[in-house]
Amino acid sequence: MPPSPPSDSSRASPRRLLRIALTLAVVLLLHGLVALWFAGYRAPANPSSQDDTPVQVELLKPQPIERAPAPAPRPPQPPHRPAAAPAPRPPTAPPEHAPVLTTTQPSPVTTSPTTPSAETGADTGAGTGTAAASNSTADRAAPASAPAPGVKFVPPPSGDLRYGAYFNGNLNGTATIHWVTDGRRYRLAIDIPVPFVGPYSYESRGRIDGFGVAPERYTEQRGRRPADIAIFNRDSKQIVFTKTPNSIALPDGAQDRFSLLMQLSGLVHGAPDSYRPGVAREFLVVDNDSGETWPIVTIGDESIRTDAGPLQARHFRRLPRRAGDTRRIDIWLAPSLDWLPVRLVQTEPNGSEIELLWQGRSAATAQLGYDEGVTREASSASSASSASSASSASAASAASSVPAVPAAPAASTVTAPAPASGIVASPSQAVSGAR
Fold first, then answer.
1. pTM attached to this predicted model
2. Low-confidence residues of the chain, pLDDT below 50?
3. What is d(CA 328, CA 321) in angstroms, rounded to the nearest whole number?
4. How many domains does the chain have?
């Protein structure tokens, strides 16, 4: 009996196994790609070294900036003196009628004698007055001839700055920094796309004062959350917040998270040779509910690869603010871009990175408009609790027979520095509510 042919099921078995194997391979490949995307796997264009922080050689504290001298006032012009009118000629006697062939002898013309002493006295008085006015003007102009001492500061020029926004090496869109200043006031607005959460928006407004960039209001809005505002009250020397009733003292040179970039840019632009490797400068940096000191150290000059080509930049890094501080911030300022930031990297404690990398700039589109209403509202709300304390102190001093001493302002409650404070919050922080 001839052998029976193989069944269809036995012939289909290898094909079925092959299809299953291919399906599994495709599924594993897709899972691997997704895992690589979340892990941010890519060779960084600008790898960051973890051990390149130099030994600190000098620590700079906030200092007044050098202010240009006021132009000397022009000396006043001496009053215009009209020319002296000529002495009037005395009337001549009318000629007497004489017989023909007889001439009349004219009377001699007489002039009134001048008084030399009066003219000399007038001229001397005018000369003395002019000299005194000149000396007085010179005395007033002398102090303005020399510039006020301080460190040199050159604020960055206005413009819209575009950056590629990367999270763990993956491009998530374009971040924009709008910077505009007229030399007296400034406005800084930042928009950063964040996946799954929405854009992060930051704004800083204020003045250019004797210490450089001087914020008056700082606003944070993360995704769909309500905006948080910090008010820098220059009159009371206090910083108050809409997020908390607490307040902190306002020292000279204090910055918010993003005004720090322009303050550092202006200081380095004014005196680039002062920022050699190892030189560190301290800044009080304020976020939406607290403030703390950031020591920023100079690392050195490096080449940064951008879409526009390599750019030479000076590397700065925030040193640990306290024991166990593992969040790191690195800033690169490019001299060819007027010392504007060309790269920013914030490294989280878990190793993830948020990076802004230079793409280009254009003319400024932001305006210097300023809403005083928000400032007044936040200031009045934050000082409501202080009013009752001040009134109690005033009543107590009125009852005393000893002459009253002006009541000191209510002691401010200093909020403990947030251990997770950085320039930009990561998406995981936005979801969990941490900073």
1. 0.64
2. 40-43, 95, 97-134, 136-144, 374-375, 385, 387-420, 430-435
3. 10
4. 1
Nearest residue to 348 (alpha-carbon basis) of 330, 375, 366, 368: 330
Please state, in angstroms and rounded to a whole number, the distance separating the CA atoms of residues 259 and 219. 11
Domain limits at 202? 58-67+150-381+413-432
Rounded CA gap, 267 and 129, in Å? Answer: 47
How far does CA 152 lie from the centroid of its chain? 15
Q: CA 156 to CA 269: how far, in whole Å?
A: 8
Q: What is the distance between the alpha carbons of residues 425 and 434, in angstroms, rounded to a whole number?
A: 8
**What are the CA-CA distances from residue 5 to residues 15, 16, 325, 425 (Å)?**
18, 20, 75, 70
DSSP class of residue 144 equals G
Q: How many CA atoms lie within 13 A of 312 on its CB side?
A: 5
Q: Each residue of 45-71: pLDDT tens digit?
A: 666 555 566 666 677 777 788 766 555
Decide if 338 is inside a domain: yes
In a domain, 275, yes or no: yes
β-bridge pairing 212-222 and 200-209: antiparallel
- Kindly state whether residue 51 falls inside one of the protein's structural domains: no
Q: Is residue 352 part of a domain?
A: yes
Measured between alpha carbons, how far is residue 95 from residues 90, 109, 162, 186, 254 in Å?
15, 14, 101, 87, 96
